[in-house]
């Protein structure tokens, strides 16, 4: 028996393979997790279809020391199975969720607590090995224990909730604001709930898929408008006193969604761009200039600001992710039934991947087997044994 595990590895555009790789060992300040469930993100699909977008190919990332091939997966939680040196506060068996964004802690931006702007920014599952595997190592300081109110499946969507928390924070959503969420995917459906929790009194979802729009209404949107209807902008004006929304958060991942986000805001409004597009897009800047609108981006989240809030929102029921989970698949089927199914036009919202493989051994058994093979009794190698 070798000390290996199954993992979904990105080798290049259109080339993701589920293969055997060594089980990682936690270094100083790290813990090793046995992954329970891992979600497939639109970013993963973009890397598979259009990449490399952010995956390092030519040179290793300065923080992780890795370049392609890398194990995908940044939406995951798991159980602690091994502690690295100098780790305190966690024990084997703890259920935890990590913040997957890495930062150097030394540069100009990190010293100002602007970790998202770190000059050597990285993310587990993109710049280094992630959670579409049986085991993954993560920084202990960036982990939060999961309360009993959150199931293992729900925990896989905490990272997505962090994205929403950060975006609402960037949008400066205040008590009484009107918020338009553009995009009816998983991020949009969570963002509308976070905006409501932040104090927005009017929340409108824009999308183009009837079932998603219906789900948005059930999750708390005051209205859900189909952008294929040419009267949607007029309907939005009626919901916002004829002005447009105070804040628009773009989660659509399409060129049209950016234009719709700008059109949906009032003069002086704020637009937050979330989606990662693989190609440049055209933006009409006149509405931004003439209306003195603010356009900003939100690329990640902070372990000390956004992760605890995301966990609390989910544990308290203010964010409900259960209706978003549309399918569960095994790791070995992640390419054919995961990435392919999430191509544009698919019916799935969030596909969760079980990284537990049939006939798996415990980490301890794998470690013992590997050690025995390297140092057999009486100095005899495996090849010498009768």
Q: Would you give an account of this structure?
A:
Residues 369-386 have low confidence and may be disordered. The chain has helices at residues 42-50, 108-111, 152-155, 158-170, 186-197, 210-218, 232-239, 255-264, 286-290, 306-315, 334-339, 363-374, and strands at 4-12, 15-22, 30-39, 70-71, 75-83, 95-98, 101-102, 122-123, 135-139, 143-145, 178-182, 202-207, 223-226, 245-250, 265-273, 294-297, 325-330, 350-354. The strands form four sheets. Strands 3, 5, 6, 9, 10, 17 and 18 form a seven-stranded mixed beta sheet that branches. Strands 13-12-11-14-15-16 form a six-stranded parallel beta sheet, sandwiched between helices. Helix 4 (158-170) packs across helix 5 and helix 4 crosses helix 10. The two termini are 17 Å apart. With 386 residues, the chain is α/β, with parallel strands linked by helices.
The gyration radius over C-alpha positions equals 22 Å
CATH topology of the largest domain: Quinone Oxidoreductase, Chain A, domain 1
Helicity level, as a percent range?
25-40%
Structural class: alpha/beta
How many domains, in number, for the residues? 2
Question: What characteristic shape results from the CA principal axes?
Answer: globular
CATH architecture of the largest domain: Alpha-Beta Complex
Count every beta strand, where a strand is a DSSP E run of 2 or more residues. Answer: 18
């Amino acid at each position: 028996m070798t000390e290996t595990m199954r993992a979904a590895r990105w080798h290049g555009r259109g080339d993701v393979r589920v293969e055997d790789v060594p089980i990682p060992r936690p270094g100083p300040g790290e813990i090793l997790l046995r992954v329970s469930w891992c979600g497939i993100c639109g970013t993963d699909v973009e890397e598979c279809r259009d990449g490399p977008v952010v995956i390092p190919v030519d040179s290793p990332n300065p923080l992780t020391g890795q370049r392609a091939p890398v194990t995908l997966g940044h939406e995951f939680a798991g159980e602690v199975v091994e502690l690295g040196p100098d780790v305190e506060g966690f024990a084997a068996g703890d259920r935890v969720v990590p913040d997957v964004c890495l930062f150097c802690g030394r540069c100009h931006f990190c010293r100002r607590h602007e970790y998202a702007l770190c000059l050597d920014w990285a993310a587990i599952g993109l710049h280094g090995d992630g959670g579409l595997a049986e085991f993954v190592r993560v920084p202990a300081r960036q982990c939060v224990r999961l309360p009993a109110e959150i199931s293992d499946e729900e925990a896989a969507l905490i990272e997505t909730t962090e994205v929403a928390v950060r975006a609402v924070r960037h949008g400066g959503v205040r008590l009484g604001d009107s918020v338009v969420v553009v995009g009816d995917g998983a991020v949009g459906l969570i963002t509308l709930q976070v905006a409501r929790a932040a104090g927005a009194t009017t929340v409108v979802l824009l999308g183009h898929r009837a079932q998603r729009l219906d789900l948005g209404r059930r999750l708390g949107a005051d209205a859900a408008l189909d952008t294929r209807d040419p009267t949607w902008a007029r309907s939005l004006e009626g919901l916002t006193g004829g002005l447009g929304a105070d804040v628009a958060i773009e989660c659509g991942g399409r060129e049209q969604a950016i234009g719709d986000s700008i059109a949906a805001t009032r003069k002086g409004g704020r637009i937050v761009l979330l989606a990662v597009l693989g190609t440049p897009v055209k933006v009409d800047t006149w509405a931004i200039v003439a209306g003195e609108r603010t356009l900003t981006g939100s690329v990640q989240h902070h372990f000390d600001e956004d992760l605890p809030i995301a966990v609390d929102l989910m544990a308290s029921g203010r964010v409900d992710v259960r209706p978003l989970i549309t399918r569960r698949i095994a790791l070995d089927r992640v390419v054919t039934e995961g990435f392919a199914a999430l191509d544009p036009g698919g019916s799935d919202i969030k596909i969760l991947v079980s990284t537990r493989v049939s006939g798996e051994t415990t980490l301890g058994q794998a470690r013992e087997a590997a050690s025995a093979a390297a140092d057999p009794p009486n100095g005899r190698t495996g090849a010498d044994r009768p």
